[in-house]
Design a protein that fits this description.
homodimer; globular; about 20% strand; Aldehyde Dehydrogenase, Chain A, domain 2; Aldehyde Dehydrogenase, Chain A, domain 1; 2 domains; five-stranded parallel sheet; alpha/beta; about 500 residues
């Protein structure tokens, strides 16, 4: 099989035709990553920081060419891609700081307590071991931040793991160019080229072959629920199952009190319309569900939202396949009982915004309506009470985010909403819109199924590092090993 | 179906016949746990500590009757069971201290940084939410410490979760008596009886029904690889998969240099024989594999070990089924190429110690030899070099513990052994024997498959709490909620 770059705005092929990786290619890449891991797991934090800083610098130095290529392959536009490259460099450097500060080597020193058990115990040292070579599956919608040098790669390298990237077929030339930069940096720093390997392929064989390679120790994935579930199943079918960190689909409910909608008015409607259509709706935190309580204020807000959405001009979607999936998704919502408020079918790569509505009882009863529709589309769910709003959140069950507008006062109703939101998502926003995920100490990007395969972990923020470090207790540790203070030897 | 206590020493039934829980019983217990969770998740640490302390006290106050019952059902003997009850009370109180100290409510305060992304970001608060009702599957071999009031229940309650225990059919009356104590304490403290529910059954239907109940939020299991894998599969088949923390089988390699064996001599051989036969070998940390480098010193040590093992008089196994499984396991080892060094088949509930040997190449090539044999049995693997010893560890792949005798000096060989051990287990011991798991801050009881389904977590030690708390980021949190500092509302 071959790979071909497609101009997202024209649907026409451009550039070289690339070959899919063969089973032998995958084996070579993983063997090289395994060999590189042997030394990298024992590297100093400063060495990891040096590499991560150099990678950030390399991205920035090649900015113009990278942006041009990524823009043609994805159609996401230069301003957005410029910001994404900044973010990617930022998180590389941030994980460099984390490594330099010794976070991967933090340990618990638990001195011996004399006497018999249960109170008495031997000296224990709790450290963390890098898992090994990580299979990193790139996303379609973030050609930099969740791709070759994205947060998964940055956090895995900082943790002391090597990486084999599965490039996304939606931006093969951008991936190839970034990987070329990586190889230059590795060579300049005298590090093995296998530390960051790359394979590619449009079919599922390459991904399955990679995650099932016996020397792969973990998987990290950002993409669709279907694709992530398939790779998770493949990871579990291994003779020795491994951790698989998948960020999958999410519908990101926005819950608002009538008072909050009235207070927010035009500006809030504009902000929400902008979030629904940002990047043509191709964000995992895209607000796909608007849970409003029936009231005049809510109805008035929906009119403002409709006007704001009509004025939006979404750009082309990442691929023609996604464009078709969007139409299928909106049709499925309407077939499942939703009524269209804004539905302007167009035969174009650039879709029009879509808005529909449904009552809460129909929503709760119909699982089809809980499915993510990837693109500039959102569904209003009308509820009669706070209790019904909580039922809607329970029916959704798992989401990366919930946005709660109007929770400023401590009331029983507000507490019920906060509790209902926290029970089923990884991040609750009390202001603003869910698109945009800060790379910061407290971030949690992951929630209960289907938003994530491992809801106890995060793929964005400082704690993303923890995914690749396994705790090990050392008992009666010899002096020479105690002196290493948690560093693998 | 019914349940019947069996006297482990005679194989004869005694006491009441108990009924297996029906699907309706399971639903009632889970609904009650769900209702109890609503308030318990928001309880103060001091309330949790009060409950855990009272449960510890209740166990101690009923010690005599509990030990008599458990001894008859399990045959583990009063000294061991007495120590296990002490340990169980200790860990209940320890998790009480952890809750009182506010560990479940620890949070990351991440103030806003002005400016645009990626450096600028809104105010974030990272807290942890209790998961919900936990399904807790008791172990056969620890009627107190991994049963109704064991570490899983203690850590789940401390985390703010409610619990539904699946009692083990090997000690139904002990379980019933402990659960009766729990109910008395809950009533005395004015807490809902559903906070710690219990179901029971000898078949797999009760366990599957429990883990697949839609209101169950996590599973915790200690037992066989087969049983754990089946429940894990059931947890994954749910419409909404949930975390399943299983502690499964482990063969716990003991690796020793010839010099260490020579230095240890008679005393070390006695200690190892005691560990192999402790509790009739029915410990998850039982040393089932001895990896020795061929040498005169090693051969001499094996002779000492043989003498020490011959003198051991293991007590009856927990159940007749386990007794038969032991014979089948040792036969399978011999059929797979191992040679018996100590093999005295007896037609009795009390087995004789078993010791066999095999060369490293045969061991590495034969997966049958990597299987746990539950009971007083161990297999010597003869290696020719440190490199081959590391290959043996890689072939085992996953274990709760590795014991390394002779790693006192920092040499390339020692480093290779330490690295090989840390790569495939949760705890490395540099002295002593692996049986006995300290309940302490640095403990890690869990390792790569098949020893654990979630090797990033531990079922023993302070970090066991983390299994039941899911991170949630709060963005632009209102003042009233900030004031709660990470406590669910």
């Amino acid at each position: 099989m071959t790979l071909q770059s497609i101009d997202a705005r024209t649907g026409l092929p451009f550039g070289d035709t690339l070959s899919s990786s063969s089973a032998a290619d995958i084996d070579i890449a993983v063997q090289a990553a395994h060999a590189a891991f042997a030394d990298w797991q024992a590297s100093e934090g400063s060495s990891r920081a040096t590499l991560l800083d150099a990678l950030a610098q390399a991205l920035e130095s090649d900015r113009e060419a990278l942006l041009a290529l990524a823009d043609q392959e994805t159609g996401l536009g230069l301003p957005r891609l410029n910001g994404e490259l900044d973010r990617t460099a930022f998180q590389l450097r941030r994980f460099g700081v984390i490594a330099r500060n010794g976070v991967p080597f933090a340990f618990t020193d638990d001195p011996a307590v004399s006497g018999g058990p249960p109170a008495g115990h031997p000296a224990m040292l709790r450290v963390r071991m890098p898992l090994g070579p990580v299979a990193m599956f790139s996303a379609s919608n973030f050609p930099f931040a969740f791709s070759v040098l994205g947060g998964d790669t940055a956090s895995a390298l900082a943790a002391g793991c090597s990486v084999v990237v599965k490039a996304h077929p939606g931006h093969p030339q951008t991936s190839r160019r970034v990987h070329g930069l990586v190889q230059q940096i590795l060579q300049a720093l005298g590090l093995p080229s296998g530390l960051v390997g790359m394979v590619q392929g449009a079919g599922h064989e390459v991904g399955v072959g990679l995650i099932q390679h016996p020397l792969i120790a973990a998987g990290a994935f950002t993409g669709s629920t279907r694709g992530g579930a398939a790779l998770q199943a493949a990871a579990r079918q291994r003779r020795r199952p491994i951790p698989f960190y998948g960020e999958l689909g999410s519908i990101n409910p926005v819950v608002a009190t009538p008072a909050a909608l009235q207070a927010g008015g035009e500006a809030l409607a504009q902000a929400l319309a902008g979030s629904i259509t940002l990047g043509c709706g191709q964000f995992c935190t895209n607000p796909g569900l608007l849970v409003f309580q029936r009231s005049e204020a809510s109805s008035a807000f929906v009119q403002l939202l409709l006007q704001a959405l009509k004025a939006q001009q979404p750009h082309a979607m990442l691929t023609q396949g996604m464009r078709h999936a969007l139409d299928a998704g909106t049709r499925a919502q309407l077939a499942a009982g939703a009524s269209a408020l804004l539905h302007e079918p167009v035969d174009s790569l650039n879709p029009r915004p879509f808005l529909a509505e449904v009552d809460a009882a129909t929503f709760v009863a119909n699982e089809q309506l809980h499915e993510e529709v990837f693109g500039p589309a959102s569904l209003i769910v009308w509820t009669e009470s706070v209790a019904q709003t909580v039922q809607v959140l329970q029916a959704v069950g798992g989401s990366l985010t919930v946005t709660l507008w109007g929770a400023d006062q401590d009331t029983p109703e507000t507490r019920a909403l906060v509790r209902g939101a926290m029970a089923m998502c990884g991040r609750v926003l009390f202001a603003g819109v869910p698109t945009g995920v800060a790379v910061t100490a407290a971030q949690q990007h992951g929630g209960p199924w289907p938003s994530s395969t491992e809801p106890m972990s995060t793929s964005v923020g400082d704690a993303a590092l923890d995914r690749f470090l396994r705790p090990v207790a050392l008992q009666d540790t010899p002096a020479w090993l105690v002196q290493r203070q948690g560093r693998p030897c």
